[in-house]
């Protein structure tokens, strides 16, 4: 027997031992117990107003998710992609944005959409089957939901390259300088498009923040199926920095994303933020996580709930009173009502609507198909009296 | 009136230059399109004159090229991307079919995708595998894409400008074996025909031959040869493959009663199949014979030493014409 061949450094020597708790590099400003801690590089002096605002945002985002999940159970939505447990990652990232920044979402960024001012009701259309994302991406600088995993990271990079050409990067004017944030998940990190986006963004020094919500699961496949090293460590190999932040800590996610966006706006290129979080719900309402993961794991992560820890902090420091919670509860109820009633009132598209918008102007070919189908439909009129 | 004799490569190069002069939102991107001017020199000199911000050498990743073009289009640019060879478009297939083709539909018309994807296509240059393919049917089959093919230098000049000015995504097919072959007289002051139109390039009365891209030249040679045998062939350069411009085709076939389609792509489920179906539906009582197709066999592109036995040539097209007269 010969000795094993030695070939390069040992992974554990370079990246440290495998981690299940985020590891020593995890940026955290608020512990799961609600204790405020400080970080030498990423910090922010949050005002009481900001803290209450972030809490409110997370509560309302969870309400959107809970209502939409219920609407699916009642048959009003065909499917819903739940974000339960990822509220801090999305609100932290969403609130770090300036109006001129542009978001490229997956299909789960309901909290970011909310931050960008997209009416949550508009998000339901795709899942109800009345449209495929009917909002105007340029109205709120929030792209359409993208189902094909990771495809939007390239769109984000191209958009950022456009910003460079428009002279809105690195001018020093905070009202003018802009950046792009590309959302994706741990599963998408395996996609070719995501890796190509990293390469293009690095090559052109594009102002894009790659924001990965590592929620530990890609439907039934654990993070270990996607990577042998912590995801944030991959960034260096592509030529830009990567930071792992506690994605259940809205304060840390906000501070880290804000710094990453500012870096991009100043013309210093792309960066990677791995928001280390957990998908407490199912992948979608059609998924059954009990088939592939242990309840113990979920119970463990429930103790790190992103909303609870901020609630504890706010209460312990006397930053909120009962009236705040009562008002927020009323606001959440109102939002729920808006979603329930609004969803049921979303108009179904008409049979002939399917012919519209294939192109900027309808071609004669499609117009002929539409007319033929219209005549066919009309041929039944009066036959079912 | 000043005219000049140009090749297809020159026509495309001049057309790209004109489009970039006319609209500063036009960007070119692709592999080796900068200093080298592209492997076929179609973008020759453009980076020098328009700068690296507008003529962008990309990393070697086709999905990346098309995917970033989507983002640029969202930002208000009009990207023109070069896929180096037909066989290399497949890594970008997902971005083209799922993103480029659908963005306008998904956004209910709120977003336009003015992207031109230039693809040198077809064989006949003695290349190694993956350099001689004809993928047009795969794109023509995809709703949301427009697909055109130029066949000559003058069309190259005008059609590339029209494609760039168009608000929908256009797959722009360039017959690579014609790039540096024949020259034609270009009058830059002329008014071009609209982009999505077919054209009768040789009038005839006995049979109609439909062609596009590289096979237009083959079809015209057939018509010459047939004429010496006393048979008059009408040749139509389809130019647009999606949408199809069928009016000139129907008009022609109703007169001739016979129709042969030729393309370099495989026959099975190729453009010829769609053309045959439409001609049969619309010209049924005028047809003296079934519509025949002459294309590549349903085999992968062969080693180049036998590619001329694979590609439709003058004799095979004439043979098909003969067969339509046997009915």
From TrEMBL, chain A:
Keywords, ordered alphabetically: Oxidoreductase, Pyruvate, Thiamine pyrophosphate
Spans annotated as Disordered: 1-23
Residue ranges annotated for the Dehydrogenase E1 component domain, each copy included: 56-334
The protein's required cofactors: thiamine diphosphate
Stored Gene3D superfamilies: 3.40.50.970
Cross-referenced InterPro entries: Alpha-ketoacid_DH_E1_comp, DH_E1, PdhA/BkdA, THDP-binding
Domain of life according to the entry: Bacteria
Signal sequence region: none
Alphabetical list of NCBIfam families matching this protein: PDH_E1_alph_x
PANTHER family the UniProt entry points to: 2-OXOISOVALERATE DEHYDROGENASE SUBUNIT ALPHA, MITOCHONDRIAL
Protein name per UniProt: Pyruvate dehydrogenase (Acetyl-transferring) E1 component subunit alpha
Natural source organism: Nocardioides pini
Automatic annotation (TrEMBL), chain B:
Entry-linked InterPro entries: THDP-binding (IPR029061), Transketo_C/PFOR_II (IPR009014), Transketolase-like_Pyr-bd (IPR005475), Transketolase_C (IPR033248)
Gene3D superfamilies assigned: 3.40.50.920, 3.40.50.970
Oxidoreductase keyword on record: yes
Superkingdom, natural source: Bacteria
Alphabetic keyword roster: Oxidoreductase, Thiamine pyrophosphate
Names of the cofactor(s): thiamine diphosphate
Pfam family, one: Transketolase_C
Residue stretches making up the Transketolase-like pyrimidine-binding domain: 6-181
Protein name: Alpha-ketoacid dehydrogenase subunit beta
Organism: Nocardioides pini
Native organism taxonomy: Bacteria, Bacillati, Actinomycetota, Actinomycetes, Propionibacteriales
């Amino acid at each position: 027997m010969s000795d094993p061949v030695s070939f390069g450094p040992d992974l554990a020597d370079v990246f440290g031992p495998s981690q299940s708790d985020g590891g020593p590099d995890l940026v955290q400003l608020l512990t799961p117990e609600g204790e405020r801690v400080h970080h030498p590089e990423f910090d922010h002096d949050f005002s009481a107003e900001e803290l209450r605002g972030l809490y409110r945002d997370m509560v309302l985002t969870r309400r959107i998710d809970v209502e939409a999940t219920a609407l699916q159970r009642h048959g009003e939505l065909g499917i819903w992609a739940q974000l339960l447990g990822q509220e801090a990652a999305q609100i932290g990232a969403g609130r770090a944005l300036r109006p001129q920044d542009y978001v490229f979402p997956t299909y789960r960024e309901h909290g970011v959409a909310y931050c960008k001012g997209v009416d949550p009701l508009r998000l339901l259309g795709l899942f109800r089957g009345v449209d495929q994302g009917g909002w105007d991406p340029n109205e709120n600088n929030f792209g359409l939901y993208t189902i094909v995993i990771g495809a939007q990271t390239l769109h984000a990079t191209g958009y950022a390259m456009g910003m460079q050409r428009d002279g809105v990067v690195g001018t020093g004017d905070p009202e003018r300088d802009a950046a792009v944030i590309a959302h994706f998940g741990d599963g998408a990190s395996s996609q070719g498009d995501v890796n190509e986006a990293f390469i293009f963004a690095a090559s052109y020094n594009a102002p894009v923040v790659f924001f990965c919500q590592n929620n530990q699961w890609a439907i039934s496949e654990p993070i270990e199926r996607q990577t042998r090293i912590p995801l944030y460590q991959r960034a260096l190999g592509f030529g830009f920095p990567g930071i792992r932040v506690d994605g259940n800590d809205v304060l840390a996610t906000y501070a880290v994303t804000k710094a990453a966006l500012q870096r991009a706006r100043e013309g210093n290129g792309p960066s990677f933020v791995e928001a280390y979080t957990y998908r407490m719900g199912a992948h979608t309402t059609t998924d059954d996580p009990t088939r592939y993961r242990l309840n113990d794991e979920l119970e463990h992560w429930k103790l790190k709930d992103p909303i609870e820890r901020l609630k504890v902090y706010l209460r312990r420091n006397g930053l909120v009173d009962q009236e705040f919670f009562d008002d927020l509860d009323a606001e959440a109820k109102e939002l729920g009502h808006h979603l329930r009633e609004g969803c049921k009132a979303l108009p179904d598209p008409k049979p002939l609507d399917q012919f519209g918008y294939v192109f900027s102007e309808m071609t004669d070919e499609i117009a002929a198909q539409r007319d033929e189908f219209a005549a066919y439909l009309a041929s039944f009129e009066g036959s079912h009296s | 009136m000043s005219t000049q004799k140009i090749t297809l490569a020159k026509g495309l190069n001049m057309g790209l230059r004109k489009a970039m002069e006319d609209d500063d939102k036009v960007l070119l991107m692709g592999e080796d399109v900068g200093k080298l001017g592209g492997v076929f020199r179609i973008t020759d000199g453009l980076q020098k004159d328009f700068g690296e911000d507008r003529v962008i050498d990309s990393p070697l990743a086709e999905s990346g090229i098309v995917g970033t073009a989507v983002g640029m289009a969202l930002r208000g640019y009009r990207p023109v991307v070069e896929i180096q060879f037909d066989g290399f478009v497949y890594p970008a297939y997902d971005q083209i079919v799922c993103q480029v083709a659908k963005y306008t539909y998904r956004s209910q018309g709120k977003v336009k995708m003015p992207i031109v994807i230039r693809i040198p296509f077809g064989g006949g240059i003695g290349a190694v595998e993956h350099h001689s393919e004809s993928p047009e049917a795969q794109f023509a089959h995809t709703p949301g894409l427009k697909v055109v093919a130029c066949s000559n230098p003058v069309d190259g000049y005008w059609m590339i400008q029209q494609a760039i000015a168009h608000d929908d995504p256009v797959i722009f097919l360039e017959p690579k074996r014609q790039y540096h072959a024949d020259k034609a007289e270009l009058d830059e002051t002329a008014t071009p025909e609209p982009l999505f139109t077919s054209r009768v390039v040789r009038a005839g009365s006995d049979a109609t031959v439909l062609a596009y891209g590289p096979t237009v030249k083959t079809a015209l040679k057939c018509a010459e040869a047939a004429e010496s045998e006393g048979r008059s062939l009408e040749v139509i350069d389809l130019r647009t493959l999606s949408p199809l411009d069928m009016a000139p085709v129907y008009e022609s076939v109703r007169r001739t009663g016979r129709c042969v389609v030729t393309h370099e792509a495989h026959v099975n489920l190729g453009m010829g199949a769609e053309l045959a179906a439409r001609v049969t539906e619309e010209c049924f009582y005028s047809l003296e014979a079934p519509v025949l197709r002459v294309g590549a066999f349903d085999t992968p592109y062969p080693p180049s030493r036998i590619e001329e036995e694979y590609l439709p040539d003058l004799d095979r097209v004439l043979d098909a014409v003969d067969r339509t007269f046997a009915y």
